[in-house]
Write a structure and sequence with these properties.
single chain; alpha/beta; 289 residues; globular
């Protein structure tokens, strides 16, 4: 089935609308980051950079590291941007952009998020790296897609809602597990846990400045939750959409975050550049070995 021009929007050069990418610009390994400045930081570690493009917050560099092709792409903040990035990355490699037809031979990308995050636990301290084995999405994005998780993922979401006495007026909660092979690759020597993806930085993550949050006990409830012995470890704003859309589209996904804040001890790393560089070098080495 071909896609209507209003659905699969292309630029005059034939690239996908927001990302300005064509299939030849996308490597099998894609690193996604929130901050466009971090794209330059990561590609500075490459052996060479063969392609660069930027449109709005979406900056892409594709090159070679350890003799392996790698793409690094900035998404900006939030699941709404991940919705754009995942759909357009997939379109670039799995839809014939000239005819609009889905290709018969589909490509599965390895997509790994390198982010920053705040920990909810003392045993996941600032200065460490945390790999999201599973994610609970509070953003509601997947409610707009005709997709379903596994029974295990549905069970995780239901247990979360029951434990938290979740407000039925909030967006639909969903849960997804990342790609076991990728997670095993990057998790050695690092913490693993369940991540909560929030639809905002302040009240959705329990922060109060001039406006009160809906539940003063939010953090305490999160800290007492476990699923199959796994605790909730951290907050961030992108992983649920990455895992949910990645899984639905047939891509392999994983997420690792540098822990720069601890919500239990109230610590914050004001300068976390060394930690981020450590994460970049470690993940590039592990993913291209």
């Amino acid at each position: 089935m071909s896609r209507k021009k209003s659905e699969l929007i292309l630029n005059p050069d034939g690239s996908v609308y927001h990302l300005h990418l064509k299939p030849e610009n996308v490597a099998p390994l894609v690193l996604v980051v929130g901050d466009q400045e971090r794209v330059k930081r990561i590609s500075s570690f490459f052996d060479r950079v063969d392609f660069k493009v930027q449109n709005r917050e979406f900056c892409t560099h594709t090159g070679v590291y350890n003799n392996k092709p790698v793409t690094v792409l900035s998404t900006g903040i939030g699941c709404d941007n991940i919705d754009i990035v995942l759909n357009e990355l997939d379109a670039a490699v799995n839809i014939d952009l000239q005819s609009g037809e889905v290709k018969s031979d589909l490509t599965s990308l390895n997509i790994v998020r390198l982010g920053t995050s705040g920990s909810l636990r003392k045993d996941v301290p600032t200065g460490s790296l945390l790999v999201s084995e599973a994610v609970i999405g509070l953003d509601g994005l997947l409610s707009f897609y005709d997709v379903e998780g596994s029974d295990r993922e549905k069970d995780l979401a239901e247990q979360y809602k029951k434990h938290m006495a979740w407000n039925s007026d909030f967006p639909g909660v969903y849960a997804r597990f990342g790609s076991a092979e990728l997670i095993d690759c990057i998790a050695k020597g690092n913490s693993k846990g369940i991540t909560v993806t929030a639809p905002g930085f302040y009240a959705p993550q329990g922060r109060s400045l001039r406006l009160n949050t809906w539940d003063d006990a939010f953090h305490q409830k999160l800290q007492s939750f476990s699923f199959e012995g796994r605790p909730i470890t951290n907050f961030e704003m992108e992983t649920s959409a990455l895992y949910g859309l990645g899984q639905a589209l047939g891509h392999q996904t994983a997420s690792v975050c540098a822990i720069i804040a601890n919500r239990q001890t109230h610590e914050f790393l004001s300068d976390y550049s060394v930690l981020v560089d450590q994460m970049i070098e470690e993940m590039l080495h592990k993913l291209t070995a």
